[in-house]
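anyone seen this seq b4? input:
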Amino acid sequence: MSCQRYHYRTGDLIFQDLDCKLCDAIEHATSGYQNKPVSHMGMIVVTDSGTFVLEAYDQVQLISLDTFIKRSEKIMIGRLKKPYRKFIPAAKSRGIKKLELPYDDVFRLNNGKYYCSELIYDIFLDENKLPIFEIKPMNFKNLKTGKIDPVWIEYFQGLGIPVPQGEPGCNPADYSKSDKIHIIKIAY
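predicted toks r here
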């Protein structure tokens, strides 16, 4: 794949269109850059031993780029704009310290667990320890129907909690459209 030969940099954000019931529900409720479906994201980490992705998937983990892309070759790469690149070393360090923390299956902020975009939100802080990415009211409603997809209702009923519609959070599709980055590669 041509993305395999692309010149990645530590701090690049990688967005992905995954295929699963919840992934599809995320994509029905959000809209990514150029209306591309986006249901997952992570941060590229380039080392002497290879190119990896720091992500919150089953847990916070560092996996090879090849393993990440094997899930889905539909990816976009976003590079932080110049004023924000100075935050990358600290973001990488914070992210590495969060390895093995559990996945946040309830999509709640500040509970010691992380979902993919929440991890990116939390590790990218400015010099005043303020986040550079935004928190917004979460949307679980299908953009076409205006109703919460049944998969979300069933999912959250299974957890014994209501759908957190409108609660503070973030999603990878919004981050793909952030004014803090520019999309430099699309492979869909």
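The two ends are 11 Å apart (CA to CA). Residues 19 and 160 are 25 Å apart (CA to CA). kinda curious what u guys think
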